[in-house]
Write a structure and sequence with these properties.
Helices cover about 15% and strands about 25% of the residues. Bound molecules: adenosine monophosphate (AMP) and magnesium ion.
Length: about 400
Amino acid sequence: MLTVEQALSHVMEWAKPLPPRRCRLADALGLLLAEDVDADRDSPPFDKSLVDGFAVNSADVSGRDGWLTVGEEITAGHVPTRPLARGEAAPIMTGAPLPDGADAVIMIEDSRRRDDGSVSFPGATIAPGRNRMSRGQEMRAGDRLLASGTLLKPVDLGVLASVGRAQVQVVPGARVLLQPTGDELVEPDEVPGPGQIRNSNTTMLAALASEYASSAEALPIARDEPGPLSSAIERGLTGDVLLITGGVSAGSRDLVPSTLEALGVKRVFHKVRLKPGKPLWFGVGPARSSGPGCLVFGLPGNPVSGLVGFLLFVRPALRALRGCTDAVSMDTTKARLSSAFAHRGDRPTYHPSRVDFMDRGSKGLPTVEPLRWAGSSDLRAVAQANGFALFPAGDREHAKGEVVPVLLM
Ligand code: AMP
Ligand code: MG
């Protein structure tokens, strides 16, 4: 049976960045830019005023206390209809273009108006260029603003908007489909009948996936019958990633692996040496016209097993699909056990735990407390956790203060 590390390296071999495509700027946050973007024009596109005030020829003002004639008012979004005449001061608003003949702007606060309409600037000395931003001072047409491979932040979206890029080429997030399977399942808004339980996996996994994917869509529950299961999975293979829950273990109604293989999904591995979540199945569907084959994860049905499988394998894959180059290394920390913990088991075990990042001792590491937990169906205990402490196979007591790896949620 593969170790977690071996299984993960197989997943990552298949999880390559999705083909770039155009997307609306508003949808591009957090995505990887897949083209170089240059300025389409100078910015500012004209010599503009930086303040509300009067556009002047500095030679008319400096060192003089005289009165100037008030000229044409220039508001933002309008262009002057005539040049500034000598001896004239034109009221101008922030962001408006300076008229020809003006080389500076005096702030309105430094002006004095007279009833006859003239204006003076007592004591003002004004150098050419004052309160003016010249055309192209921020950027010149053709300047490289963002390089391909930039992870788009909110400010980058602003820069792209400023150069008219209402659409950009990006590496998109994956389109994830979630397929719950199991005769015993009913949806959360239904009342379980005898022998039935509610489908808790899909909502949780869709919420997790949506953090890393472009969409995460839940499909209706598929019954443990070959025909319906096959049709459901076939539909699921249209996504970039298909997360199937349940039906991957050794029971007589665990039909997912055989159904997948009959549909041409190539098995990469089945079963990983870990607890919970051993029966995990991973494979790759046939190539699609829209891109590479769907990555298919068959997660065990127990909610905590599915969760651990998601965190260990699906999360890094979703990151890699959207072009993240550091997709694996960001999920673990080391922490000191806050109390002794006896672990028994023949497989490495991910135990729901609470890391206290504020409690850093001599080694500078946070503490971690393994929580009371009733096993792979006990999701309630995990609601108190923010990670899973990893204990190696074997029966032994782990001492208080021992340093253990923690898979973070
Ligand atoms: P399976 O992997 O299909 O053998 O299911 C293992 C256990 O997980 C069984 O007890 C199932 O009832 C339970 N289970 C399967 N799917 C879900 C689900 N979507 N939500 C909650 N429990 C599930
Ligand atoms: Mg089942």
